[in-house]
Amino acid sequence: MENQVSKKAELKIVRQFKAPKSLVFDAYASEEAFAEWWGPAGSALTLLSFDFREGGRTHYKLDSGGMLMWALFRYQKIQQPDSIEFLSSFTDPEGNITSSPFPFDFPLEVYNHITLSEADGITTLTLYAEPVNATTEQEKTFAELNASMNQGYEGTWRQLDTFLAKVQG
After folding, report:
1. Please, what is the angle between helix 146-168 and helix 21-29, to 10°?
2. Where are the domains positioned within the chain?
3. I want to staple 51 with a disulfide (CB 3.0 to 4.6 A). Which of 1, 56, 100, 135 is the partner?
4. CB atoms within 10 A of CB 67
């Protein structure tokens, strides 16, 4: 009988942008740029703090049609213009990590690793994410929400497309 290895709860999204990778990286690294495109489509983003550096934090509020939520990025490793590693969490308005505002048991922390590569003026962004210090139930929830998270990110990526086209003229 073969040993069964459980699949780790993870998310992987690969998306291409018609822009140099330095510009895609800068869209994450610049407060003004990030404020223009980050978040689910139709949400209003308010940056409460923005400190894009290793050890830095970005704290923000999203208003999705009256549903308010706060979130935090804690940057772990940044290699300009190739990769960004950070922990993301939902928070209260003061920036303290809290459970998800949604009616399910979502992990308190998610490790995110974004890598960028460029060929012929097209940048490939790969996002890899996985729960950190999560319970079995939280990992199961994360895995079950893959399709929903992919859909949410697609709206965010469309906003990034629009931003990149605008800044490239």
Report:
1. 110
2. 11-168
3. 56
4. 10
pLDDT in tens, 114-124: 999 999 999 99
Sequence-distant (6+) residues with CB within 8 A of 51 are 57, 58, 75
What's 163's DSSP letter?
Answer: H
DSSP β-bridge partners for residue 123: 17, 118
Beta bridge partners of 12: 128
* Cα(169)–Cα(38) distance, integer angstroms: 20
In tens, the pLDDT along 57-90 reads 999 999 998 899 999 999 999 999 999 999 999 9
Q: How far is CA 164 from CA 122, 157, 168, in A?
A: 12, 10, 6
Name the phi and psi angles at 2, rounded to 5: -80, 145
- At residue 139, the 3 state secondary structure works out as helix
Residue 17 is given by DSSP the state E
CATH 3.30.1490.190 applies to domain 11-168: no
State both tokens at 124.
């490939």
**What predicted TM-score, i.e. pTM, was given to this entire model?**
0.92
